[in-house]
Amino acid sequence: xxxxxLEVLNALDVAKTQLYHFTAIIxxxxxxxxxxxxxxxxxxxxxxxxxxxxRVDGSPTPGTLPPNVSAAVxxxxxxxxxxxxxxxxxxxxxxxxxxxxxxxLMVMVICSLASGLSFGHTAKSTMATLCFFRxxxxxxxxxxxxxxxxxxxxxxxKKTRGAFIAAVFAMQGFGILTGGIVTLIVSSAFxxxxxxxxxxxxxxxxxxxxxxxxWRIILMFGAIPAGATYYWRMKMPETARYTALVAKNAxxxxxxxxxxxxxxxxxxxxxxxxxxxxxxxxxxLFSKEFLHRHGLHLLGTxxxxxxxxxxxxSQNLFQKDIFSAIGWIPKAATMNALEEVxxxxxxxxxxxxxxxxxxxxxxxxxxDIIGRFTIQMMGFFxxxxxxxxxxxxxxxxxxxxxHIGFVVMYGLTFFFANFGPNSTTFxxxxxxxxxxxxxxxxxxxxxxxxxxxxxGSFGFLYAAQNKDKTNTDRGYPPGxxxxxxxxxxxxxNLLGLMFTFLVPExxxxxxxxxxxxxxxxxxxxxxxxxxxxISTV
Length: 537
Hints:
Elements: H1 7-14, H2 19-53, H3 67-95, H4 97-116, H5 123-155, H6 161-193, H7 211-220, H8 223-228, H9 230-235, H10 240-246, H11 250-261, H12 269-276, H13 288-314, H14 319-325, H15 337-370, H16 372-391, H17 394-397, H18 403-418, H19 421-427, H20 438-463, H21 481-499, H22 511-515
Helix pairs in contact: 2-3, 2-5, 2-6, 2-7, 2-15, 3-4, 3-5, 3-20, 4-5, 4-7, 5-6, 5-20, 6-7, 6-15, 6-19, 10-11, 13-19, 13-20, 13-21, 15-16, 15-18, 16-18, 16-19, 16-21
């Protein structure tokens, strides 16, 4: 197969790991750090919002957010993220990665601050304002998914590209961890300064007026890491692959990468024109040619991310059962408002530290050794095994004395999600599509994942309710129960395992080799293997 690889792209592919790689990881990773912080910190303060704004006089238990309000507060950012992934993914291919990268960050900074300044004369108006700003916060976060992955993949060398993209995504773990730590610090400081009795002793006095500042400070903190990286994002040059293959400016691509790699690179305008004018590089996103070459790939990346996020985001359904059963979180009425926030944050931080963070870094260490396909298959398989291990003897796990085993199994499902499809579904879409569609296709895949997150978070919140109406959470109708919900989630993991066969292995290959952008014009359609192993194409 003849190849017209540009010198500037070849230089990136074979470059030794150096400072600019780590700079790109930090700049892109801090965006993901902020994304995770902003998306997950709301779950730490929803109980507090219920106590402040939805207290019921004379009730034996503290106020909680009604189901529709809880779904809106927790889920509106996911809706914004889905929209942002599609919009900014498309825009990243039209305007360039760098230009759009700054926009997403500014939206995140402004909306993080605005979320903490949510206002209103009534509980309903305050929650409506909060939901409005969190939708747009999610919109900005959504743009970070396709752009961070695409930028890192286009900057990396082919030998360690998987580890670099995985390292960017792994910053999510630190974002979740930091959310818990910030909440611990803020709630502890307020709790120690403003003493309050438990709810059972004084329903009104258990929630001090100053508690209203706690959730606002926690939400606004997300603006700090995002704002800190804005300058460095603007200093990054546009990726050479976008400049050369999409903008068709060989001179600028060579100049940018000469400065970044600190080696002299020739501009090859004629070769750029020849490559981009080939028939194989002229088809559109909604063409039969795209469907023929990459249709199954896109189906694979969207379906695996969709079913993964159903399983991943639904895992918080039984957190409250675990935490209560092992004594990490006592009954709400025995605590004051700030004490409850502190104990929820402590439990979440321990889960993040033991189950969430390690899995990400196992992926970073091993992805370029054992490959994306193996890690994704293994992750889906073990998630299915551990969910069945929780579901089949569910009554056993919920009886006194067996809770530690339940926590271990629960932690392992998180571990194999992150050392598995939660990482690989983010990495692979940034490697297998042509440069002119790369950001768009990653955005489509990520949006499918976020649709799965919405199903997992809210569909299963209702589905996992007890079959007995008297034992459901306040305001919820009866469901199929946690045990049956776990069986459904195990089936989702099985589907993910099956759809993984549609996704090609990209370990050790250049982006152009995976996308077919350097192919000969003369080709035979019958010689294209849609599993990703391209013969003459």
